[in-house]
Design brief:
It is built from 13 helices and 11 strands. By secondary structure, the protein is α/β, with parallel strands linked by helices. The protein has one domain: Alpha-Beta Complex (inorganic pyrophosphatase (n-terminal core)), CATH 3.90.1640.20. Strands 5-4-1-6-7-8 form a 6-stranded parallel sheet. The chain has a 3-stranded mixed sheet with strand order 2-3-9. The radius of gyration is 17 Å and the shape is globular.
Length: 311
């Protein structure tokens, strides 16, 4: 379960902790997956994930994302995940945190397009075998691995999509990279089959998620953020970091921007290409939800941070 002890440096007072918990409640809105029980089980981990980043003396981040949709029209990476990863990459760059991104070869173009849309195209993209990426991450001193909407291994070892389909032939085993350490691990997911969901009881996912018994990922994370949409988890993490670190507040708030989010999604869909993971169509949607839904979430988080400024 999420840790209860909290370090109080970098502004982590009782009031800022409450603010971060309010942000967590905003991103934990069910969009039809019946994952409310997963929200409850993961409550408090947004705070611990942000604390791990905000209090580390020297942070270097490795991002992992890209969820390939083989039956998409066209077959491509889905829009959920890389958008959030690109926003995180942009935010980290603005506060001086180096990062790089790992994905599959099949998802490389969509991820690169997302980074370009964010203005973070200088972030290296690793799309080789996990062993080579592990070596590269060790050489550059990665301290924190953050996986977002990345399909992970189920109990039989196969990564499975929300429909229960084995997508091993399209999905590199980046669970190996995530758990290879010495980096601390943070994961963001929304459906039970993503890297990090192994931190929750498999029985819980089986009970509440369609096909949960066979799709539940077994790979755990030290900090697991469960959101209604995985991109919202990235929004929430940026917001939590802005709450904890006054010196990071303005540049991170600037990343919670509707125009930036739009630019990233447009670049992904048009240049990736990328498809919606639910409808499997090449549309300007994420998880079958239009941009007004996602941009309202950005506004809600920003409004909370503005109202809580100075706590």
């Amino acid at each position: 379960m999420p840790p209860t002890g909290r370090r109080r440096d970098h502004g982590q007072t009782q009031d800022t902790n409450r603010l971060v918990d309010e942000i967590e409640r905003l991103i934990q809105i069910d969009v039809g997956r019946r994952v409310t029980a997963l929200f409850e089980a993961a409550r408090g981990w947004l705070r611990s994930a942000a604390s791990a980043l905000a209090t580390a003396p020297s942070v270097r981040v490795g991002l992992i994302t890209g969820f390939y949709v083989p039956l998409g029209s066209p077959p491509a990476a889905e829009t959920d995940g890389p958008v959030g990863a690109a926003l995180l990459a942009k935010g980290f760059a603005e506060v001086g945190i180096p990062c790089r991104l790992a994905t599959d070869e099949l998802c490389r173009s969509a991820c690169a397009a997302a980074l370009a849309g964010a203005g973070a195209e200088v972030v290296p993209v690793d799309a080789t075998d996990p062993a080579a990426t592990i070596a590269a991450w060790r050489r550059c001193g990665i301290t924190h691995a953050i996986s977002i909407e990345r399909c992970g291994r189920s109990a039989d070892g196969a990564p499975r999509n929300m429909r229960g389909l084995d997508i091993s032939s399209y999905t590199a085993p980046l669970d190996e990279l995530f758990t290879a350490g010495p980096w601390e691990t943070i994961a963001i997911g929304d459906g039970g089959n993503e890297i990090g969901m192994g931190s929750l009881p498999r029985e819980l996912i089986a009970q509440h998620v369609d096909h949960g018994q066979i799709i539940a990922c077994t790979t755990p994370a030290r900090h697991l953020i469960v959101a209604g949409v995985s991109n919202w988890g990235a929004y929430g993490l940026l917001g939590a970091l802005a709450a904890f670190r006054a010196d990071w507040r303005e540049p991170l708030l600037a990343c919670l921007d509707e125009k930036l989010d739009l630019a990233i999604l447009e670049a992904m869909v048009h240049d990736g290409p990328a498809v919606d993971g639910v409808s499997r169509l090449r549309t300007m949607t994420v998880d079958n939800l239009g941009l007004p839904v996602h941009h309202n979430k950005l506004r809600e988080i920003s409004a909370l941070l503005e109202a809580g400024h100075g706590v």
